[in-house]
Each structure stands twice: as structure tokens, then as C-alpha cells.
């Protein structure tokens, strides 16, 4: 293959039979009406190579992928191409992705392909150049064994970072997804239609046809879409409108107005253009988690601080606005109620109230509002008054946005954004069985 089509592909090619070559020529003749010019005509072997490449099927799922990698692993180690540790690290990344996105195997396989075919080669090339220029390269980098540097983090080069971090791969994946969905294909529209119709039925109530649409249904669907944090929520809403119209129902002014208002609401807080990194609470080390709040400048453990924002699905700005006066605890029910002012005008915080109950586990989980509140109260040193902003700096002022993000970063060992806690919290609530309506309510 290396001589024929792709210099990076060293696989062997089976000799061709005359019939296959004849069939290929016939197809060309049929389509083009003439045989190709001599200088443009590929050799039979080149055709065969391309045919092999096009028809080569990748692994169909993670298990197959793993099986094929096992063969590769044995070969790679026998030939001393890279270290076992770096191979395992890479496999773990792929496995984690398949757990997180079980339905997106195709995308993960693409990302894997892309990573190995393009990124690794680019990385190797750059390191070789760095080496020649006398620049710093990872200590154990060898030209003939380039992939082992993979496991060392935080060294240099964008390509290298992509390789070593899950987030990078996820980003590559979402870029891939972007490419797939850039052309509004019929099928992706069809999927949107089905999903939004399902959602509308849920909102309308059991057994009721959501069409023709009522104001309540449209608003309910919009609330759910918003609560889910989906970026393309307005497109779903648009499909819902089209469904209604195509079924031959009227669009009276009140319905037009409802759609306009809902669409505005969906676009207003469209959220970040990049998906916030999901930094899970369970990944925080026990040592850090158990450390008392009194050990921290503001009197609250950074991990607890992050968990608090997660459990209430708060963006950084809302988490920072939390005041002690906004929290009510019901000792008997083990319930916590949080009220957050919607704006500066709403200092009494009459706007939004949310209540969460203790997780009820024998030892309270990290994702338990009751647990977090108890810890924040108990561990706060007495020099701090339980008044005003909950999260403060050493000067007892409200924690700035950058300081809050810094605290979240150090708690999670991830590079989080202002949206990370909200997104991670939403995912965790869904994992624990919360329904989409409840989620929308909690996250409104
Ligand atoms: Zn609990």
C-alpha cells in the first residue's frame, strides 16, 4: 500500500483477478462514456489499493476496537514502538468516551482514527524538528519510539495536548459532529422532529395528542429545552411549529406570539459556544474532599464550593451571588431551600425558590445539598459571620469570578468554565434519575 496509495500504510495487497479489474473498467466506461486518458489511468494495483481502503470497515463497537487494539498492543510492544503505559492511557480515554456517549461510537472511532492518523504524526514531526533546533522535548522522547511521550502532561504543543486530554478529544469529536451536521440533512431534521414531538407529548400529558399546539405545550417544551442546556433548542422549537402547520392547523396571533417569546427566551441565555467541561465530583480525591473548610481562606472547602454549584445547577455568576440569607434548612424533613434573586432589583429573592432533599444514603453523598449545607455551616470558622455572601475572599468580600473559577479548577483538577458546575450538575441529576421536567424546574 505504501508504494501505491498511502505512504503511511504498509499493509499487503492481495493480487487481483482479471474479472474484478474488468468490472471496474466497465463501470467507468458506463458512467463516463469513454475510457480514461492514458496518463490519468490508475494502475490495476492502485485501484485495488483504493478499493481496499474504501471498503475497509473500522471496528463496529468498543469491544471490537479493544480486541483489535490488543493485537496492536502485542505487536507494538514486541516491536518496541511505544510504552505499555502510554497505550493503556490512550485506551482508557477511548473507553471513558464510550461510557459517556454510548450511542456515539462512530464519532469516537472517527476521533480515534483522526488522533492516530493525523495528530500523532504531527506531534512526532514537531518533536523531531524541536530536537533538531535544540529546543526542549520530553525527556524520554526517541525519534523511533515517538508515542511514549504521550503520557507526560502539560508539556507543549496543541497537538500534544489534544492527545493527552479527554477534553481535547471531546472537542475534536464535537468539531467532527459539527462537520457532520453542518449540512442540514434530512435525517438529522427527522430526528429533531421525532424528539421534539416526543417531548411535546410528555409535556401535554399522558395519552394526549400535543397537536394542535396549546400555549402551555409550547411553553412547556421551551422550558424543557432551555433546562436541558441544549444549544440548538430554538431549532427544535421551529420544527415543532412546522409540524403544527403541516398538519393543517391555524397559526392564530396568540400562538405566533407564544413562539416568538419562547424563541427569544431560548436564544437569550444560549450559553457558551463551547460545551463546558464536565468535571465530576466523584473524581475529586478523598483527601481534598474531607479537608475541613477552616483550612481554606474563605472558610469553605473548594470542593464543597464546587459541589454546591453543581447540586443547584448554578453558573458561576449565580453561585457567587449566593448569600447565607438565601438558604433555609428544614431540619425535620432534611430539606434545603435556596432562593436566588433573579436580578439586582430582586434583593428579597422572591423570584426563584428551589428545594432539594437529603440524598438519604447512609453516609451522605457528595451530591447531597443537605450534606453540603451542614458542612459549610459546621466547618466555617467563627471569625466569619454567616451573613452576606457565602463564598468570600480573605477580606470577607464576595469572591470574584476569576477566583471562583480558580477554586473550582483546583478542586477538580480540570480547566472548568463558568458553566461547568451547571452542566456537570445537570448530568449528575439525570444519572440519578431526575426527569427532564424536574431538571428544567431546578435549572430555570
Ligand atoms: Zn444526604
Automatic annotation (TrEMBL):
GO terms assigned for molecular function: DNA binding
Protein name: Uncharacterized protein
An example Gene Ontology biological process: DNA integration
InterPro entries in alphabetical order: DNA_brk_join_enz, Integrase-like_cat_sf
Organism whose genome encodes this protein: Cladocopium goreaui
UniProt keyword list: DNA recombination
Domain of life per record: Eukaryota
